[in-house]
Structures are given as structure tokens and as C-alpha cells.
Amino acid sequence: MARPLSLDLRSRVAAALAEGATVRTAAARFEVSVASAVRIGQLARAGQGLEAKQRSGQRPLMLLSSADAVTTRLASKADWTVRALAADLRAAGIGVSHDTVWRFMRRQGLSFKKNVAGKRDGSA
Fold it and tell me: What confidence score (pLDDT) does residue 66 get?
């Protein structure tokens, strides 16, 4: 994946456009794409900052603030399904989907492992 253009380069492109250079000339001079030069010019004319926008990354855990609610429910009843746990959390006012609960449990290392007989297996 390509990296964002540096603030220095963005500033130089914006300065060249402000001095009257065409978008294509500025793009060729600084070896950036024409589309990037257009966007930099639009940001500069609008008076917005030229800093690169934050790139997407791993989203924070939605249930991290409600981790106590999940662990207390799991401690009180050991045979929850993910969908039932999500429904119980929704009833308590914590708006989550079953997929959110599943991802939270996986990242926290919580799982319901079963052995061959279908019983809960002991901890590793």
C-alpha cells in the first residue's frame, strides 16, 4: 500500500499552485499524480490543513468498556452461546451484534472448547 505524501511535499505543491502553476505542471514538477495535485490545491484553496488524513487501521474493541458486563455474565452462566450473550447484552442496553461479541471474546482469549464427548474441556 502506498504511503501518504509528506507535509513538506504537499506544501510545495500548494505553493506552486498558488503561484499560478497549472495542476499538470505542478504534478510533473514534484512527481505526484495529477489527482493528488488537484486534491492538494482544493484543500489549500478551502483553507483546510494539508496534513494527511488518518488511515484506517484496526478498530478499537467496541465491548472494551463493557468487558466487566461480559465477564460477569460468563461467570454466572457457563453455557452461553454467542447469540444468546449478545441478546442478553442488548437487553441490558449495550447495543452489540453477535459478531461483535464473538470478535471480543476471541481477542480476549475467551472460548468454549469442548472435548470429543461434547463436555467442556479443562483449561490448557
Answer: 75
